Amino acid sequence: MQVAARLGITRVCVETDATLVKVALMENSYRLSAVGGIITEMKHLMNSEFVSCKISVCKRDCNKVAQNLAAFGCTFPNGQMNTWDDVPQAIEVLVISDLAGSDDE
């Protein structure tokens, strides 16, 4: 979310496969939990940096591209940010597969 804000993106849609994450971001009941600091920081970013921020729940098996992109990102050293001139082949294959199975045609 911080990168999106720095890039000047004003409208975001956050998808999660965890209903509890959505609830935590929309309510105040998680302030004292172990992840309360992270939730508070995310809520602050959502409210101060974005004109619109939609949070939705998406089943994990329906969001394979995001799951694999997140796993790919976890292979980099902590704090390292990467950019690519082209889409990484592993991600491109997943997107093509996802589009092939799409009902939007």
TrEMBL record:
Pfam family, one: RVT_3
GO molecular-function terms, A-Z: nucleic acid binding; RNA-DNA hybrid ribonuclease activity
Positions of the RNase H type-1 domain: 1-72
Protein name per the record: RNase H type-1 domain-containing protein
Organism, scientific name: Miscanthus lutarioriparius
